[in-house]
Amino acid sequence: MSIIQILFFALSAFAIGSAVMVLVSKNPIHSVLWLILVFFAISGHYILLNAQFLAIVNIIVYAGAIMVLFLFVIMLINVKKDSEPQKQFLVKLLGVLAGGSFLTLLVALVKQTAHIQGRNLLMKDGVIGLIHPLGKALFTDYVVPFEISSILFLSAMVGAVIIGKK
Amino acid sequence: MPIQYYIYLCLALFSIGVTGVLTRRNAIVVFMCIELMLNAVNLLLVAFSKMFHGYALVQNAASTTGIDAQIFVFFIMVVAAAEVSVGLAIIVMMYRNTHSVDINFLNRLKN
C-alpha cells in the first residue's frame, strides 16, 4: 500500500466521519465546526490530486469566508439548542432510509458502468491544477464568464443588502 | 488510484448531504448540507479532470485537457459564495419575521 493510498483512505474516513457528525450534532455551532473539518479534508484531497489552486481557494473561500458567515448568523440569531422536538423519529428514519437507498442505487449504477472500468487517476503528476495554467485559461478562454461572475457578485451583494434592510 | 474510489467517496458525501436535507429541521443546518453536496460534486469534477488529463498526457505531453473542469469548480465556488450571502440574508429575515428557523413553520405558502 503506497503512501498515496494511505493518505486517500485516511482523508476519506476523516471526511465521511466529519460529514456524519455534521448531521448528528444537536448544536448548530458544532455542525459548522465539523463542516469546516470536512472542507479541510476535501482540501487535502485536492492537494493529493495536485490541484493546488483549488485547495487554497477551498480553504480561503469555504473554510475561511463562508463558514465564518454561517457562524456569524448562528450567533446573531441565537438558535436554541433543543429546538428540535424528539417525536421526529419516523421522519429521521425515513430520511436515513431515503438517503441510504439513493446511495445504494448510485453505487449499483457506477458498478455496472462500462466506461470507467479499470480507468485510473493521475494522482501527483500533471500541471493543470497549478496557478499558471489555470490563470492562463481563466483570462483567455474564460474571461467573459469571469467578468459575468463579478456582475453576479454585485447583484448578490445588492440583494443581500436589500433583503437585510427590510 | 482507480476512479471508482473517488466516485464512491463523493457519492457517500452527497448522500450524507441528501440525508441531512431530509432529516434536519433547522434551516441553517439544511443550508450547510447543501454546501456539503456542492463540495462532493466539486471533488468529483476534479477527480474526473485528473483522469482525463492522465489519458491525454499519453498522447500529447503538453496537453492541458481537463483544465476546464477545474475552472468549472472555481466558478461553482463563486456561485456558492453568492448563494450563501443571499441565502443567509433570507434566513435572517425569516428569523426576524417568525422568530424561528424551523422549516416546519414555513408552510404558510400552502394555504
Describe the structure.
The complex is a heterodimer of chains A (166) and B (111). Chain A is 75% helix and 0% strand. Chain A is mainly alpha-helical and 166 residues long. The longest helix of chain A has 26 residues, at 52-77. The model of chain A has no long low-confidence stretch (mean pLDDT 88). Chain B is mostly helical and 111 residues long. Helix content of chain B is 77%, strand content 0%. Chain B has three helices and no strands. Chain B has helices at residues 3-23, 27-59, 67-98. In chain B, helix 2 (27-59) packs antiparallel against helix 3 (67-98). The radius of gyration of chain B is 19 Å and the shape is elongated. The interface between A and B is large, with 81 and 72 residues.
State the main characteristics:
heterodimer, A: 166 residues, mainly alpha, Four Helix Bundle (Hemerythrin (Met), subunit A), 2 domains, 6 helices, 0% strand, B: 111 residues, Helix Hairpins, 3 helices, elongated
- DSSP strand (E) fraction of chain A? under 5%
CATH topology of chain B: Helix Hairpins
Helix content of chain B: over 70%
Low-pLDDT segments of chain B: none
The overall pLDDT average of chain B reads 88
CATH architecture annotation of the largest domain in chain A: Up-down Bundle
Measured between the Cα atoms of the first and last residue of chain A, the distance is 58 Å
Q: Can you say what the CATH homologous superfamily of the largest domain in chain A is?
A: NADH-ubiquinone/plastoquinone oxidoreductase chain 6, subunit NuoJ
Strand content of chain B: under 5%
Overall shape of chain A: it is globular
Mean pLDDT of chain A: 88
CA-to-CA gap between the ends of chain B?
53 Å
Put simply, the count of helices of chain A is 6
Please compute the radius of gyration of chain A using only Cα atoms.
20 Å
Q: Kindly report the oligomeric state of this protein.
A: heterodimer
Describe the sheet with the most strands of chain A.
none
Main interface by residue count: A-B, 81 and 72 residues
How many structural domains of chain B?
1
Number of strands of chain A: 0
